[in-house]
Structures are given as structure tokens and as C-alpha cells.
């Protein structure tokens, strides 16, 4: 068969493979039912047609501790095939998935529960009083985390009149030596000074770290609140914020009650 005849045959065949007007598209409820039947442990909050024919946007909600998360995936009508990725509108040069994810991120932020600051076991944290120490800030930190070091150097170092409570949270899978350093800091004669010297100047803590360091208790606390990475900051207002945010942003949040 010549290429031209093959193309003609394909063009004649395509209508047979396409949906005709008589083929009713499944409703969003039907797709949601099919998806839930296959994945009963997932909380589906919405299903809607996507810009791609035959694919449906499925929004899944999950919750860990105080954290709420929404995920966008795509499914066919029977949930036999899933697409986990990004749909890009080439004509308008925008990410359809990205725009939806931004909307859902704002929604998740509004649904995040507050942490009861008064109930945090601050005795299991390193206490560093700056100035009059009138304001309070909690930080979950890993001594080998580069973002934690950035937070200490570029943000926390600039704060005044604040008491900073640092919960040592070594992420051993990423940083194998972090727990040893955490224990050495906690067991030192002046944990606050040892921590500051390590994080800002790279000075290694002295000692063998053989004391009752609350590493396991802090890990359990982090899991309780859905904290899985460092740094994570908790403000007196109950806000939980992840990442090495600027000092100016910390100041704004410290002012909230």
C-alpha cells in the first residue's frame, strides 16, 4: 500500500474510532464513583472534565497532622489509566495544572489547623534568649540541612527581643551524621552557644553526645504536626511555616497574635 493510500485509509477510519454525538460522556459523579472504587483510601473532593478530551481532573485531599494537601491528577472515565503530570495550554502558553495547583494551595493554607503554642514541650528544645526575649519562635532544624543554616545566618541572626526554641530534628536518611551532631550540641555545656557556633560558623560541637537527648521525642512531635522537612517554624499565633523565609517575613508573623 502506497503512503497516500495508507493516509486515505486512516482518515476514513478515524471517524469509526472517535466518539459520535450519540455517545454520552460519563458524568463527573460516575468518574468519581469509578475512581473511588479503585482507590477507596483516597479522599476525592472534586472531579471535572479536563481540557483534554477523555481525561478528567481529579482533586485528592490528604491531611497529615495540621497540614492539608491537595493533589491534581487526571483519569480516564473508568480510572483504568491515570496521568500524574502537567497539562500545558500551548496556545495560551500557560500551565493548566499549575494554575489549578496554585488555587488549591491557597485553599489548603486556609484549611491548615493552628498549633497550640502553649502545649509545645519547649523543655525539649534549645532555648536562646535575644534581648528581652518577649517574642517567641519555635524552629524544627537539622544541623546538616543547608536551608536550616541559611535560615540561621540570614534570618534568625537578625532578630532581636525574641526567644528562639530549636527542636533538633536530624533527618538521618538525608544527613547520616546529623544525629551525632544534634546529640553533641544538646549534651554540651551551653547548647544555645554550641548550636549558634555550628550553624553560623561551622564550628563542630565538642563531646561524645552521651546524654539523654530528646531526639526521638522531637521526631514524634514533628510527626504529630505533619512536619516532615526542615526548617519548619511555628509562631505564637499557631502558624506553621516551612522553609528558610526572610527575616522580614518572620518579623511580620511574630507580630501576629
From TrEMBL:
Key word Disulfide bond present in the record? yes
- Spell out the subcellular localization from the entry: Periplasm
**Main localisation, per the record?**
periplasm
- Thioredoxin-like fold domain: residues covered: 130-254
Asked whether the UniProt record includes Zinc among its keywords, one would answer no
Signal peptide span: 1-24
Which family is annotated? Belongs to the thioredoxin family. DsbC subfamily.
This protein is called what? Thiol:disulfide interchange protein
The species this protein belongs to is Crenobacter caeni
